[in-house]
Design brief:
Elements: E1 3-9, E2 26-27, E3 30-31, H1 32-42, E4 47-52, H2 57-63, E5 69-73, H3 78-88, E6 96-101, H4 109-118, E7 124-130, E8 135-139, E9 142-147, E10 153-155, E11 159-162, H5 163-172, H6 180-186, E12 191-195, H7 207-222, H8 225-228, E13 231-243, E14 247-250, E15 253-256, E16 260-261, H9 269-281, H10 287-290, H11 304-316, E17 319-329, H12 339-350, E18 357-362, H13 368-371, E19 375-386
Length: 387
């Protein structure tokens, strides 16, 4: 089964104050949404549907094209936003979907797994906490009555569903609903209750930011020193010889030249070196382990396939790419006129800012095979940090 998470991040969050929608506000050195995304990546969820407001142009630009992320526009209501997100992955063979509020940044991977596991036995499952406090009704500041708390639960997210069933339920549901469980129940689906976590709070008001920071600090302190300081460095090196051709592809950019680079794929020596640097940091071998040159399906393949796989593997292991440095060694073609475009192309694939990607060139003073213009070499270093 293939699981995706749909993160609803299109709301305005005005009750939280701060001038920004709460999902974009800072929390313990990152944004609220960054903590939410990191939790699902740490849990191994590869496909993320991010529902954004059409007004959040900077967010659209930031996440557009990031590996594993599909963007969908928010609607006039939360239910419409969820439906937009579900429809955005209709053709991607998703079997299960977890629907989560971006404003719940303290979600723990074990709770994500618990909801996911519950879907093996049913169509829907959601976390909740049994209500333990006395319940009152009130009017104009005075208690007007009590309510029986037996059988009452406080709902949380992520709420999990078989994809096809919740898509059909949302399409059939008229108007707004309290949450996706309400939509599922209206469609006749049974929803299993998974024990929730008191730390899985939803940021609603200003005081919730302080609560979330305490929870995240505690979670960080509970991790081992090795986990908290897990910084990985990897090196990559690659060489391709010149042959017949009229261009080379370097770091994803096609450059006119009187020769071409020879290789089983498109021979992008720079991208290969960066890919191997990431694999090296993860102790995952090299490109040849994951994409054997003996396999004809990779003949002439675009090298961004390999790099995207390495980036996704890093994220699935709970790492973020901090920065990448790539050096191309050649006499010709000249790299500097194209380096900014290479930097932008690599940054887009890596899912990081362009100022965290270095692409530079040097010669070998006409010594060796690169000095004789027989080929191009590339060296790369990648730094990965545990999310």
């Amino acid at each position: 089964m293939t699981t995706a998470v749909l993160i609803v991040a299109a709301g305005r969050g005005t009750r939280a104050g701060g001038g920004l929608p709460k999902q974009w506000r800072p929390l313990k050195g990152r944004r609220v949404i960054d903590w939410t995304l990191a939790a699902f990546r740490q849990a191994g969820i590869e496909k993320i549907v991010l529902v954004l407001s059409p007004d959040d142009s900077e967010a659209w630009a930031e996440f557009q094209g990031q590996p594993g992320i599909v963007l969908a526009p928010g609607g006039d209501t939360r239910s419409r936003s969820v439906l937009n997100g579900l429809e955005a992955i209709e053709a991607q063979n998703i079997t299960r979907v977890l629907i989560h509020d971006a404003a719940r940044p303290c979600i723990a991977p074990d709770l994500i797994h618990a909801v996911e596991d519950a879907l093996a036995a049913g169509s829907a499952a959601a976390p909740a906490l049994a209500v333990t406090d006395a319940l009152w009704t009130g009017h104009e500041g005075k208690v007007t009555g009590t309510r029986d708390r037996d059988g009452l639960f406080a709902a949380q997210t992520p709420q999990g569903f078989r994809y096809a069933e919740i898509l059909a339920a949302h399409r059939a549901h008229p108007g707004e609903a309290a949450d996706d469980v309400a939509v599922a129940r209206a469609a006749g689906l049974d929803v299993a209750i998974v024990p929730g976590n008191p730390d899985n709070i939803k940021i609603t008001g200003p005081a919730d930011f302080a609560r979330a920071e305490v929870i995240l600090d505690r979670a960080d302190n509970d991790r081992s020193e090795e986990d908290r300081m897990d910084i990985r460095l990897g090196n990559g090196y690659d060489v391709h010889r010149f042959g017949a051709g009229n261009h080379v592809v370097l770091c994803g950019v096609k450059i006119p030249h009187d020769k071409g680079l020879q290789g089983h794929s498109d021979a992008d020596v720079g991208m290969h070196a960066v890919t191997d640097a990431i694999y090296g940091a993860l102790a995952e071998g090299d490109i040849g382990r994951h994409f054997p040159p003996s396999d004809p399906q990779w003949k002439g393949a675009a090298s961004d396939i390999f790099l995207r796989h390495a980036v996704e593997l890093a994220r699935n292991k709970g790492f973020q790419i901090s920065n990448v440095d790539c050096t191309l060694v050649c006499e010709y073609p000249k790299i500097t006129p194209h380096s900014a475009k290479m930097q932008a192309q690599m940054a887009s694939i890596l899912g990081i800012d362009a100022d965290r990607v270095s692409v530079k060139a040097t010669t070998s003073e006409r010594l060796g095979f690169t000095g004789r213009s027989e080929g191009i070499a590339a060296l790369a270093t990648a730094a990965l940090v545990k999310s």
